[in-house]
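@channel sequence for tomorrow's demo:
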Amino acid sequence: MNKTQKNEFYQRYEASTHRLGRAGTLGAIALLLAVPLAMGWVLGAAPDWPAFGVGFAQVALIYWTSGVVEFLVYAPMLGSGASYLTFITGNAVNLKLPCAVNAREICDTQVGTPENDIVSTLSVATSSLVTTLVLAVGVLCLVPLRPVLENPALAPAFNNVIPALFGALAFKYFSKSLKLAAAPLAFMCLLFVLVPSLIGSVSFLILVSGGMAIGIAWWMYRTGRLH
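structure tokens (generated this afternoon):
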């Protein structure tokens, strides 16, 4: 297969990915809305729609920024297929993005290439299937393991699973360029210590820290300090 044939094949693949991704996204939204609406119809109960509209608008004002920022940050890294799967199945930062980045490093692909798009899609799809399987096993074992999971001695461990996960992942990437990561990391740590309430605005602050890193990288590049 020559280069022209590869480009034509990838264009067909990309078109089918967007077609299936849009259909899957609309289907997922429909299913999410169908459950509460069906329960309300069966039970003969309905929400106060004016109050619902006011509440929805208040929540949307908070989360629309997060949604836009996550799309702008994650989509270029994941590619089209992996982005659809990630936004449908969730756990973008905790699970899907690390899987895609790790797969990219293993396969030595570059962001923005067809190869990286395919590798990311396969890694995110595998992650979604494994997550579903693990959740199914967890639900089945929830009752037998309840005494163990509710043991007070294990509570500190469960409370620190996410920080431990992100700490290990972050060190791997920070260590590659400590000079570039030091300032954004120090600024964000200080900000969260001084204003703990901002922890709930992590998605927005990702854009701020990313902008800082890009600015510092540009300055280091212009001054010849980036190696």
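heads up for whoever presents: The radius of gyration is 22 Å.
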